[in-house]
């Protein structure tokens, strides 16, 4: 992810285009894993990854950042466009109705932080840090929403 993002930043600087970043965290995933088991948790991660796969273009970078946290790096998407994409992903996840081994699983929701190069940072780590910081605001305010990073 870091190497690809570094290359995208260099291209964006040359071509004067933005890069949108989404940090996504599945809400209450530990509780979900504890209630339904790790196989069901793995299933949820695969389903969410499929939602993300269907939401990105060939030039986008989608990866698991850690645990139940995912990152999308979307070159040439402006802040309004990345916000629209984040909301579409959040909605798609909340509309999933999952069944694993004959057991209906709870409704999933996701908290999302959004940032954009160069508004929220001029290095890959600065933009990711901005998106990650924004991700914690939905978690503190009821979850299941997408919030844009604040400008520093």
From TrEMBL:
Residues covered by the GGDEF domain: 17-151
Superkingdom, natural source: Bacteria
UniProt cross-references to InterPro entries, sorted A to Z: Diguanylate_Cyclase, GGDEF_dom, Nucleotide_cyclase, Rev_trsase/Diguanyl_cyclase
Pfam families found in the cross-reference section: GGDEF
NCBIfam families per the UniProt record, alphabetical: GGDEF
Name this polypeptide is given: Diguanylate cyclase
Native species: Limnospira platensis NIES-46
């Amino acid at each position: 992810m870091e190497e690809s993002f570094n290359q995208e930043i260099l291209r964006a600087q040359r071509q004067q285009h933005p890069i949108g970043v989404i940090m996504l965290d599945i809400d209450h995933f530990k509780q979900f894993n504890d209630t339904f088991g790790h196989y069901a948790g793995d299933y949820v991660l695969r389903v969410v990854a499929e939602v993300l796969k269907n939401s990105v273009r060939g030039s986008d970078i989608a990866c698991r950042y850690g645990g139940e946290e995912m990152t999308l790096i979307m070159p040439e998407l402006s802040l309004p466009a990345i916000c629209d994409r984040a909301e579409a992903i959040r909605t798609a996840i909340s509309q999933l109705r999952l069944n694993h081994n004959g057991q209906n699983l709870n409704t999933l929701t996701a908290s999302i932080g959004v940032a954009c190069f160069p508004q929220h940072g001029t290095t890959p780590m600065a933009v990711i840090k901005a998106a990650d910081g924004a991700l914690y605001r939905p978690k503190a305010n009821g979850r299941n929403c997408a919030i844009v990073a604040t400008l520093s």
